[in-house]
Amino acid sequence: MKNILSVFCLLLVLAENSFSQAEQTGSAFLKKYTVTVKEIKEDLQILKRHLETVQAGLYTYTSKAKMDQVFDDIEASVNQPISSIEFYRKIVPLLQHIKNGHTNIMPHLAYEEAINNSFTLFPFDVYFDKGSLYVLKNNSANPSIKEGSVIKSINGEDASSIFKELAVKSSRDGDNRTFPEMVTTLEFNKLYSKLKDVYPIYKTKFITPKNELLDIPVKGLTLKEIAENKLKRYKDDGKWWGETNNPVLKLKINNDIATMEIRTFSIYYARRVKQKFKRFFNKAFDKIEEANVKHLIIDLRYNGGGDEMPTIELLSHLLDKPFTFYKDMYTITNKVPNMELYDESKFEMNFLYPLFKLKRNGDVYRVKGIPGMKEVQPSKSVYKEKVYVLTNGLSFSATGEFASFLKNADRAMFIGEEVGGNTNQNVSGTTVTLTLPNSKVRIRIPMELFKLNVSHEKTNHGVIPDYYVRPSITDKLTGKDPEMDFVLNMIKKTNK
């Protein structure tokens, strides 16, 4: 009874805010954005046609017959008007069949803006380890909840099952699991609000590190409030590396061991911090040669990719024979239909892009001027000693390509988790954002298919590490680095 009264009082307070209580709960928020059955069918037809026309690898993992059936099943499941967010939740499972990490489905922009500005979210950083969901950082209004506590349930639903559901409904390449699980870890409260709902109170059960069961109503907080608590409690401003001025390329040499940390392969982000890949690699490998380094550790964890040129430049310092990075690269169209439904410029996409970048070749359009299609010569300084590469699920996109090529050349030992990308191809590059006209649900669609010049067996997975190492919840709480420790211990044993 006390819990009921507490929730009721909180509802009255929230009702006085700029948004009504109906707007503070996620599903109710978009009731005003209701779509009819006819409009739903129209949006589904538009989505299907645009995926088939624009997405170059749509049927890589799922046959057209199966994909048609999935669309038919979604359409058949709707027999009355629903809100935009409900429609979003119905079509998100398409990602499980498209299986492309650069293709994503996003809710109505108004819903996403509410997540960022007004919705009250589940206020914890979480970590999934050995089947359990843990509190990594307590950003809630209740500071007594201990880090390392197991989250048993949220609003009556098993927390580990919630995590698995959110991960399954997230983008990934092929059958990879590490990428969607890491994205779900980093974006748990936002994904929960999109795929479940938003609440002023989250009824939560915990098991503390002392094995005590707590059944606590946790007040939902806005992202601003969560950030304030995180900064105050953990001295963590919550910024990701792209929002800082920290270098994205680092080299450290200790005796005969060199560690090269590469945060991104994006030329844009390197320029932002006044770094250039070619210059960095040339100087780094000169220093490595001068220091007579016998062991090179390349840290690619959390490297979400970027451009192919930096990966090629790095490979030229690791491979002593000429190589060609891609077998092929193409789009399946030179004109995006109904450009009025896209965020991008019609003039840029349907005139400049095909004029300067595309050349018809049979049923596809080859992309011109791609560095990876040319033979590359080894650099002046080629490192020929042992190479170790650290990876995790967020080693994605161009980083996945680099890892695949290096693995194919049998040039490195991989430690960590499966790379979050297909070993044989990558559908990414030029990407457009479609907004469905009735529901306003948005879909990011990549246009270019890159086929790597490798001979890996088709497994629908990224590079599998030679040694699987993943941080435990204890490692995360104590700041340990088990992947790096593993490599250094391996080198230490080698040197004996």
Secondary structure layout plus pairing:
Elements: H1 2-15, H2 21-24, H3 26-29, E1 34-35, H4 37-54, H5 64-76, E2 82-83, H6 84-91, H7 95-98, E3 104-106, H8 109-117, E4 124-129, E5 132-138, E6 150-154, E7 157-158, H9 159-168, H10 178-186, H11 188-195, E8 201-207, E9 213-219, H12 223-234, E10 249-254, E11 257-262, H13 267-272, H14 277-290, E12 295-299, H15 308-315, E13 323-324, E14 326-331, H16 346-357, E15 358-361, E16 364-367, E17 375-376, E18 386-391, H17 398-408, E19 413-416, E20 425-435, E21 442-452, E22 467-468, H18 473-478, H19 482-495
Parallel strand pairs: 11-12, 12-18, 18-19, 19-22
Antiparallel strand pairs: 1-2, 3-21, 4-5, 5-6, 6-7, 6-8, 8-9, 10-11, 13-17, 14-16, 14-21, 15-16, 20-21
Detailed description of the structure:
This protein is α+β, with helices and mostly antiparallel strands. The protein has three domains: 81 residues, no CATH class; 116 residues, Roll (Pdz3 Domain), CATH 2.30.42.10; 241 residues, 2-enoyl-CoA Hydratase, Chain A, domain 1 (Alpha-Beta Complex). It has 19 helices and 22 strands. A hairpin with a 2-residue loop joins strand 4 and strand 5. Helix 9 packs across helix 10 and helix 15 runs parallel beside helix 17. The longest helix is centred in the N-terminal third of the chain and has 18 residues. Keywords: Signal. Pfam families: Peptidase_S41.
